Amino acid sequence: MRRPLLRGGLRMRLVVAFALVAVVATVTTGALTFRAARTDLLQQGQDTVITQFRDGVDSLAPSVAFPPSRTDLLSFATGVSHTQRTANWRVMASYDGMTATSRPGDTFAELTREMRESVRTKAATVFQRVSTDHGPALVVGIPVRFGSTPFDGSADSSGLAVFLTVSQDSEQGYVDALVAAVERATVPALVVAVLLALLAARGVLRPVRALRRATRDIAEGHLETRLAVNGSDELADLSHTFNDTAAALEESVAELRRMEARARRFAADVSHELRTPLAAMAAVTDVLDEDAAQLDPDTATAVRLISQETVKLARLVDDLMEMSRFDAGAADLHLDEVDLAESVRRSLAARGWQDTLATLLPPPDTARGRVDPRRLDVIVANLAGNALRHGGEPVRLAMSVHEAPGAGPVAVIEVVDSGPGIPDDVLPHVFDRFYKSDTSRTRTEGSGLGLSITAENVHLHGGTITAANHPEGGAVFTVALPLRRDR
Amino acid sequence: MPRLLLIEDDRAVREGVELALRRQGHDVAAVATGEDGMDRLRSFRPDVVVLDLMLPGMTGLDVCRRIRADSQVPIIMATARGDDVDIVVGLEAGADDYVVKPVQARVLDARIRAVLRRVGGPDSGDGMPQPETHDDLTIDRAGLTVARQGVPVPLAPSELRLLLLLSASPGRVFSRQQLLEAVWEHSYHGDSRLVDACVKRLRTKLGEPPGQPRFIRTVRGFGYQFSRFTQPPRPAAR
Q1: pLDDT for residue B82
Q2: Other CB atoms within 10 Å distance of the CB of residue A443
Q3: I need a surface site. Which of A168, A429, B94, B118 has the fewest CB within 10 A?
Q4: A276 in a domain, yes or no?
Q5: A275: CATH
Q6: A344 in the same domain as A255
């Protein structure tokens, strides 16, 4: 089942099914009732007519002179028709090719040749239902016999036969009324069926809808979502299963979060604990550097080593602390409106890179925006430093301002180096913490957190950062920062 | 030789910083608690205080406020990264500048010298400039005093230097970065909260009504400017 059919489709399908059932049931019942009633009705009417006709014939036949003259036939036919004055009988008597009808000039068109023949040869009461232009009619034929018991089969046929045609309009009227009644019954039955279908659909759809809503809530991260379970049908079972699954999921996620929080907490605590001894060591590195020259060469080397590595260690712990703050969601943006081009220029100049990098910056005051100047400095310094360390010179830094649809103006900073580029298997991991692209290189200048911190700083601004390889070689890092001029 | 009071509870850090700063040419008195610090403040009469924010007992913030209650001695806070809130609270409590630990001795020395330069004597050279008036505010650039309606306003060194810079060019807009470089001698990418906190303290001391500053105006999206007042001054004229 494809989705478009299911959307609101369960209800529709139930309605259609119920309606079909209602129609089929009504029509079938109606048809059967109709058939039985119709047969009964017609049979009964026909039996009455035949009995009355035979009684009439039996009572008048003995008084007919034999062989009858035309006048005798006429009076006989008229007499028979008058036995049932209200029934509008048309009677015809025939004898040896001579006929007389109760109504003058009646052609008795309904009487078929077969019937006439049948009455003559079988010598028994014969009837036929025919339909005429004026509606259905019953035609009955009775041969008149000699003897006191004319119908015991022993008596001889007299050759006199009487025929009756009677309209069956009233019977047809009853039948029509029956059909109309069945038709009329179908409509309310259909309405009731549709209402029942809607009711049933509601009963099924409500839990289904609740399930769908709950599933969506879970997908959106509301793992505490549970369903209220009513009854004990299959849907209740499903709801139970859903609740169990959600509970298990919530438990797993909570456990994972606990573990992750512990790990991050540990990293933060370690950095914090390292900071105080480092503060003491960092304070005296300058003393070591100044006095190293007066020491013997080995001690001087050792002292300089301690001094240099202390500075690096301090930077690493600083980066770790920064990372912990990002993880804890404690990193704040201190926005200030600055000229980003000027800011980038100052970042490079502060590190003596103003002539090392080729820059393409927008003219003054065209790239103004609200950013955190310190974090922008970190972003630019890390990207430029990374390109100089791992890529190859020349390194180009370009900045431009674009109008992003729905996001306002965006500053795009692009740093391109001329190195070998980034291997494809490394590319997805360049922003990972401590990810080393070259396993043989045990340590680099940076802390291994530079690009991770850069990415975090960009994301904190609501911006994006991507790493790619330039078609002409070299790595390309692209940062897009929203300028937030509206606020 | 600048006299420097160091209040730092960790023994190793205290000894390291003391050693390094003494070698940079400072006369250092180092104490471990805020209470001792307050005692030494009176007897030692330092030119500058370097104050650890995280102190046992009396906190660095308390010390900062107690010092500011009757002294405008420059205060440099030493703080650990990750204590962002403390920085703002510390600046609002009256600290002039801050450094993030671990800090190298020469960085700390540079900050100390910068903060001391702020209260350096009057500009030598082209004579004694006359006290200038801006509305009911009197600024004496020679005597480095500020008075409002004739009542002296005691200003910490960063506040004084900021006011002198802004009021020297009424109407001119300074960006926070410019002020950071000029007043605090920080890099262009320094912490602009230093400027905001200092302006806030300055406005309070000048008795500016909240939300309607008369002297130091905020120029949204750019920075700050000192109001231009028409001459001659008419105190409280509106």
Answers
A1: 60
A2: 9
A3: A429
A4: yes
A5: 1.10.287.130
A6: no
Do A305 and A446 lie in a common domain? Answer: no
Domain range for residue A457?
336-482
Mean pLDDT along residues B79-85: 67
Domain end among A263, A297, A327? A327
| pTM reported for the whole predicted model | 0.62
B217 interfaces chain A, CB cutoff of 8 Å: no
Query: pLDDT-based confidence at A1, cuts 50/70/90?
Result: very low
Contact A373 B188 (CB under 8 A): yes
Contacts of A286 in chain B (CB under 8 A): 20, 23, 104-106
Residue with the larger pLDDT of the pair A350 and A153: A350
Model ipTM value: 0.78
User: What pLDDT does residue B121 have?
Assistant: 46
When mean pLDDT is compared across A6-15, A131-140, B161-170, the lowest value belongs to A6-15
Helix residue ranges, H only, B119-192: 157-168, 176-179
Structural domain contains residue A226: no
**Interface residue of A269, A285, A286 to substitute, partner B, most B CBs within 10 Å:** A286
> What's the pLDDT score for residue A149?
47
Residue linked to tokens 């020469």: B106
**pLDDT > 60? residue B233:** no
| Residue from the list A283, A350, A485 with its beta carbon closest to the beta carbon of B13 | A283
The residue of chain B nearest to residue A487, with distances taken between CA atoms, is: B221
pLDDT band at A303 (very low <50, low <70, confident <90, very high): very high
Distance from CA of B41 to the nearest CA of A (A): 23
Tally of CA atoms within 13 A in the half-sphere of A231 that contains its CB: 8
* Pick from B10, B15, B189: CB nearest A276: B10
Do B102 and A325 lie within an 8 Å CB cutoff? Answer: no
Q: Is B10 on the interface with A (CB under 8 A)?
A: yes
Which CATH number is A340's domain given?
3.30.565.10
DSSP annotation of A434? T
Domain assignment of residue A184, yes or no: no
φ/ψ (deg, to 5) at B6: -105, 120
- Which of B20, B84, B102 lies closest to A278 in CB terms? B102
Do A15 and A106 lie in a common domain?
yes
In a domain, A195, yes or no: no
Whether residues B10 and A350 touch (CB distance < 8 A) is answered with no
**In angstroms, rounded to a whole number, what is the distance separating the alpha carbons of residues A386 and A367?**
24
Interface membership of A289 toward B (CB under 8 Å): no
**Domains along chain B with CATH numbers:** 3-118 (3.40.50.2300), 132-226 (1.10.10.10)
Could you write out the three-class secondary structure of A354-396?
CCCEEEECCCCCCCEEEECHHHHHHHHHHHHHHHHHHCCCCEE
Question: Would you call A368 an interface residue with chain B, using a CB distance cutoff of 8 Å?
Answer: yes
**DSSP for B17-61, written as a single string:** HHHHHHHTT-EEEEESSHHHHHHHHHHH--SEEEEES--SSS-HH
Q: Given CA atoms A347, A348, A354, A360 in this order, what sign does their dihedral have?
A: negative
pLDDT of A442 higher than 50: no
